[in-house]
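Q: My labmate handed me this sequence with no annotations at all. I'd like to see what the chain might look like in three dimensions before we decide whether it's worth expressing. Could you predict it?
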Amino acid sequence: MSKHERELAEAQREHWQQTYCGNPGMYGAEPSEPAVHAAEVFRAVGARDVLELGASHGRDALFFAREGFTVLASDFSPVGLEQLREAAHAQGVAERVTTGLGGA
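A: Here is what I predict for the chain of 104 residues:
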């Protein structure tokens, strides 16, 4: 990764750190329509594991976990992932959710 690419990635990480610190749960708690549809498709084909890139604070990752899927959720922001882990514990699905920091 070039210096310029690293700088862009770090700028993105900083942006999302500030955004999630200032706006926890900014996308709400309800899953997105694409996640609801994806869960139906995943279930129909027998999938059990979901990888979510750009999970933010985890509304879709948490939905997948509540639906019985095992989820690996990745995001640029450690703050967003911490919010996701806290919500997973509160909702009783922490054993189904693993988080990983993405980006540079």
